[in-house]
Amino acid sequence: MAATRRTDLVIGLIACGALFAAWELVAWLGLTSPRFLPAPSQILVALWRMITEQSLLWHAGVSTLRVWTAFLIAAAMAVPIGIMMGSNRIVGAALEPLIDFIRYLPVPALVPLSIIWFGVGEETKIFLLWLGTFFQLVLLVADDVHRVPQEYHEIAATLGAPGWRRLLDVALPAMLPTLVDNMRITLGWCWTYLIIAEIVAADSGLGFVIWQARRYFKTPEVMAGVIAIGVIGLLTDQLVRVLHRRWFSYLRP
After folding, report:
1. pLDDT at site 73
2. CB within 8 A of 32, min separation 6: which ones?
3. Counting C-beta atoms within 10 Å of the first and last residue's C-beta, which end of the chain has fewer, N or C?
4. What share of the chain is helix, strand, coil (3-state, %, to 5)?
């Protein structure tokens, strides 16, 4: 298993290296304009300059704090509500149509309402990030509850466990591996709404940095900011994957 993961890692690194080498070659041959598609080397230089001269790491910390705050609020709400929806037919029938409707609303279209409701402070940024996460996660949690094999509940009922014990001692442990994986996925979605959240009267964060660079057509800095978001998201995702493998090692042969 470890050898397989190492092989996958090597293949992934080779593929990424080949892509960036081809990109660098295309830029070096002048087939693209640096104004629209700068070379990877130019982006790396811009990234280093932003780290050393423009407090990029501080902006990254601000964005990370916003994303995690919104995500933890969304998870704290979505997990119990999703469990209730999945375990109680009446609650599910009452909430699912409304949640389905809201989750299809485009978050950018709700920016004006967010400003009206919360102003232009941190609350609006957290709300927009929460909005892009909560309604997706709550339905995934409800689906996780539905996927718990019915025989688990039947065995627990045969042993005399009441409904709430079957939920806490049977359903929750059975759904926990999938729940953690779905939370990892929705955390990634939360990062995708960062730019939208941080263009609302922001003076900090990676979204603000990218938006400021866009105003002055500093394409290498725009792409460096985008890469910074991608790197943070990738590292977070891989960390959660490692923890998932460690916590639920019993799922693998």
Report:
1. 95
2. 26
3. C
4. 85, 0, 15
Here the CATH number for the domain that contains residue 112 is 1.10.3720.10
Let me know: does 76 contact 138? Beta carbons within 8 Å: no
CB atoms within 10 A of CB 82: 27
Q: How much of the chain, in percent, has pLDDT values that exceed 70?
A: 90
Q: What token pair was written down for 246? A: 């460690």
Residue-number span of the structural domain to which 200 is assigned: 39-251
Q: How far apart are CA 119 and CA 21, in angstroms?
A: 46
Give the number of other CB atoms < 10 A from CB of residue 199.
Answer: 18
- The burial class, CB within 10 Å (0-12 / 13-18 / 19+), for 204 is middle
* C-alpha closest to that of 192 among 116, 115, 106, 73: 106
